[in-house]
Specification:
heterodimer; A: alpha/beta; Rossmann fold; five-stranded antiparallel beta sheet; B: mainly alpha; MetI-like fold; 8 helices
């Protein structure tokens, strides 16, 4: 952690994510306007909010699939400060640091994004072998372990296209776990699933929360978010509307749009 | 001893098979090099760096616009003259004639590369974005992303076009006969002229080309089944 983050040493040692004053624009559209976020190690944070509030963009900034235009990020011991050079390009990141960071932060996508040309086992072993340089034997052992963990070990030789959405998403979770990441990101992991498949994925995620893994979720499953989260962040038009415990956000919030948004889940 | 007029198909079988083999060698080599050129060309066409994009666009546009026969003749003569001039400039005496085989492979590969660039570019653009994003999110290097994800993911889209290019290439090798290099077509022309059994030899040539293309069509079909192994059968249109 560098001094540029102005973080107190005691806080920085226990934070998995420390985002300060993130700004993200697409042309004239400001999707994130000065968003700060802290995620302690071993905690679960849910980001909720209406469509277009910037919650997916914020999540994607945490593994830099989106580059913030301004702000500072410290994630898994990688500190990055985003700024603009005189030509107006976003600076503050080199390729090696980007790959280092991404090897420590795994993402589970809304549309699963499994690689269709690899089997289930191949999907899970690929990143550990190519990115972390594990031998095939070690990667296989790791993959078997995590496929067992998500209940997909018997499908190891199937191709993704032959699995249901819920099964594909569980494989995608095993793929993320096999990197043994410091931080797990979930981008609306159940939004593309048939309703009867949602619970099998949520129960896997709940199990990971119970293990004390550090996770950030973007979700529309309000009851689930309220249940598993240590921290809930209500994002509203690119700024943090309310952040706090599930109790703070779902029950005690004075923020009108937040109260309106969570109302269906509260009653 | 046979007189010239009594020569038949059997007398020419050896040279014709040799010519057919040469044709295959030219085609396979030109295809392999063309594939590499196409991968480079497609990557350049999709590069964020404008000068590289421009260069690749110029290559694929210009080469596809000029008749291959003209390119073969141009490279053969211009190439010979340029090399001769180069050698004279270095103070060495002599004339350089470019080897016919090298010309054949070089020109056909250069042309294949241009068409391949467009086939592969389209196939890469058709890869669902999420698969590439997943590779990015896991921290794949550019090379790992390219050969582990991009190539296998684009192959199902690219193979029908690639198979087409291979068939066209086999037939285009016949153009090489204009520079007097004895591949299949040139040998057949000689045999036909020598025996005056024109129909027999040109029909034999047709049969040999047909055999080559049918065999390779079957191979491409198997290859396509392999690269589509992860896709349920009903997705094949």
């Amino acid at each position: 952690m560098t001094s540029s983050l102005h973080a107190t040493p005691s806080a920085s040692s226990t934070l998995a994510v420390e985002a300060r004053h993130l700004v993200k624009r697409y042309g004239d559209l400001e999707v994130l306007r000065d968003v700060s976020l802290e995620v302690p190690e071993g905690s679960v944070t849910s980001i909720i909010g209406a469509s277009g509030s910037g919650k997916s963009t914020l999540l994607r900034c945490l593994n830099l699939l989106e580059r913030p235009n301004l702000g500072e990020l410290a994630i898994a011991d990688e500190a990055i400060r985003f700024d603009r050079n005189p030509q107006g390009d976003v600076v503050g990141l080199d390729r090696r640091q980007l790959q280092r960071l991404r090897a420590k932060v795994s993402m589970v996508f809304q549309q699963f994004n499994l690689w269709p040309h690899f089997t289930v086992l191949g999907n899970v072993t690929e990143a550990p072998m190519r990115v972390k340089g594990l031998s095939r034997r070690r990667a296989n052992a790791l993959a078997e372990h995590y496929l067992e963990r998500v209940g997909m070990a018997d499908k190891r030789d199937s191709y993704p296209a032959y699995l249901s959405g819920g099964q594909q998403q569980r494989v995608a979770i095993a793929r993320a776990l096999a990197m043994e990441p410091r931080l797990l990101l979930f981008d609306e992991p159940t939004s593309a699933l048939d309703p009867e498949r949602v619970s099998e994925v949520l129960s896997v995620i709940r199990g990971l929360a119970d293990e004390g893994r550090t996770m950030v979720l973007v979700t529309h499953e309000m009851a689930f978010a309220r249940d598993v989260s240590d921290q809930v962040v209500f994002l509203d038009r690119g700024v943090v509307g309310v952040a706090g415990t599930p109790q703070d956000v779902f029950e005690d919030s004075e923020h009108e749009r937040c109260r309106h948004f969570v109302a269906p889940a509260v009653c | 001893m046979n007189t010239v007029s009594q020569e038949g198909l059997l007398d020419w079988a050896g040279p014709i098979l040799q010519g057919a083999l040469t044709t295959l060698e030219i085609a396979v080599l030109a295809y392999a090099i063309g594939l590499v050129l196409g991968l480079i060309g497609a990557s350049a066409r999709l590069s964020p760096w404008a000068p590289l994009r421009g260069l690749a666009t110029a290559y694929s546009t210009a080469v596809r616009a000029v008749p291959e026969l003209l390119l073969i003749i141009l490279l053969y003569y211009a190439g010979s003259q340029a090399l001769t001039a180069l050698i004279h400039a270095m103070g060495l005496p002599g004339q350089v004639a470019i080897n016919g085989f090298v010309t054949a492979v070089g020109v056909l590969a250069f042309v294949q590369g241009a068409y391949m660039t467009e086939v592969l570019r389209g196939a890469i653009l058709a890869i669902p974005k999420g698969q590439l994003e997943a590779a990015d999110a896991f921290g794949f290097s550019t090379w790992a992303r390219f050969h582990r994800i991009v190539i296998p993911a684009m192959l199902p889209n690219a193979l029908p076009g690639m198979s087409n290019l291979w068939l066209i290439l086999i037939k285009d090798t016949a153009l090489i006969s204009v520079i007097g290099f004895s591949e299949l077509f040139f040998t057949i022309q000689q045999a036909a002229a020598s025996t005056r059994a024109h129909f027999l030899f040109y029909a034999a040539a047709g049969a040999i080309y047909l055999l080559m293309t049918l065999t390779s069509t079957a191979l491409f079909a198997r290859l396509e089944r392999y690269v589509r192994r992860g896709q349920p059968a009903q997705e094949e249109a």
